[in-house]
Amino acid sequence: MPDPASRAQHRGKRRERNHRMLLAIATLLMVDVATAQPIEAPLYRIRAADTLDIVVSGHPEWSLTVTVRPDGRITYPATGEIEVAGITIQELTDRITAAVGPEGRHLRNPRVLINVTGMQFPTAYVLGAVQRPGAISLPRGVNTAPIVLTMAGGAAPQGDLSEAVLYRDDGSMTAVDLRRELAGQTESTLVFAGDLLVVPETNVRSVGVLGAVGRTGEVPLPPREESVDLLSLLVQVGGASPAAESDRAVILRQSGEIEPVALDDVVMREADAPLLYGGDVLYVPPKPPEPEPEFFAVAGAVTSPGRFEYREGTTLADALALAGQTVAAADPERVMVIRADGEKQIVNVLPMLAGEAPDTALMPLEPDDIILIPSRNKSYVILGAVASPGFQPWDENSRLADALAKAGGPRENAADMQRVMLVRRTEPGADPTVLEIDARKLLQGQNEAANWRLQPGDTIYIPQKGRGSDWRQAIDLPLWILGVLGTVERIF
Questions:
Q1: Cβ(230)–Cβ(284) under 8 Å?
Q2: pTM of the predicted structure, to 2 decimals
Q3: C-beta of residue 347 within 8 angstroms of C-beta of residue 335
Q4: pLDDT score, position 332
Q5: Domain count across the chain
Q6: Among 42, 370, 383, 484, which residue carries the largest CB count within 10 Å?
Q7: By the 8 A CB rule, do 149 and 177 touch?
Q8: How far, CA to CA in Å, does 411 sit from each of 384, 444, 459, 462, 481?
Q9: Residues 21, 138: Cα–Cα separation, whole Å
Q10: CATH code, domain with 396
């Protein structure tokens, strides 16, 4: 294996051969290497970050590649530190030749070739309201302010093109109307290396939008515009929302004046769109909230007891119609209407059911009224996901399976037979007993233990599937019915 000294000698010979080849090429081109012009353009001047390949023919010890430092200087063995930024390749060639030649007393007749292998293009800068602020490498040729602005991605929306400023590398300053230059209305300003182009922001003004619109907040006015028309503003904020009370919109002027505006007329172009200026506010009020629904209740010996939404003008006849038919055990001569304030009124609805007594039928109801239809006989009620919910007459042989059969059976694919509720009142004033029964096999003649014997006043509730597992929610209605029935018993 060759030793390090041999490898170094081999590298030196190879580098010398390369240098001789370069010299031969230069000779064929009839270029006097000692006074040759550089390969680059004659007027090219060295810049910081340029990479220079310095070759002294036949003398690799004086040849090296060096990068110009940011301070514009390089270090060379025969000269030490020298400043090269700003001089031409020929000027540097002359300095190196003199340093290693007779003046430097190193070589008798050195032949020096310098090549720029890594060229740093001249740089200008663009700052302010542009898309990509920062340094811009200027291409060869003539560069103008519009070209440099384009290389920076163009102006940002808030950029004021008519008020741009160009700061020269020599410290001077030039006002630039980029709007006119881009339009070709004036001669473009030249930009050179080291120049700084600044595009300022416009004096941004805005209008406010509040209320029932797609987006609330501040909306900037278009650049160099003093106002925006209402229709354009509505487009920018997504229009009025469905909940808007468009006929009550107002413009709150910066002066304090309140100006009503009909948005629908403006949108339909049946009215001119007013202008909004900086500081004005458009307010679109929302519609007043819908009143919460009110209810009344019908309980007792009807086929569909429950709570029903109250509407203005609801009558006793309407309530009984919503609750279905009275059952066979019903006592229509002793129907009770209980008002929200506790007032009670007993009404005979038998003539009304026969199509008579119109005054009774037209008896007006009020929110939170309760209509109780008592039963002549002992009964129980079955509610929930069955075909025919309602009251059923009770006898000593009444059982859960009988109640399900009389109610038409559970609704297919809707009844949750695993959580059937039996709500039983043990004694007046006491809390009811709630039993949860798995009745899935009951109708198939299996699980006889689940076939509970019923008592007068029992409430059976068949929950629907998918209503959750909270039994308190599931039996809310039967407990309410049970409480109502207790009230009936106490009254009658």
A1: no
A2: 0.35
A3: yes
A4: 85
A5: 5
A6: 383
A7: no
A8: 9, 15, 18, 9, 21
A9: 35
A10: 3.10.560.10
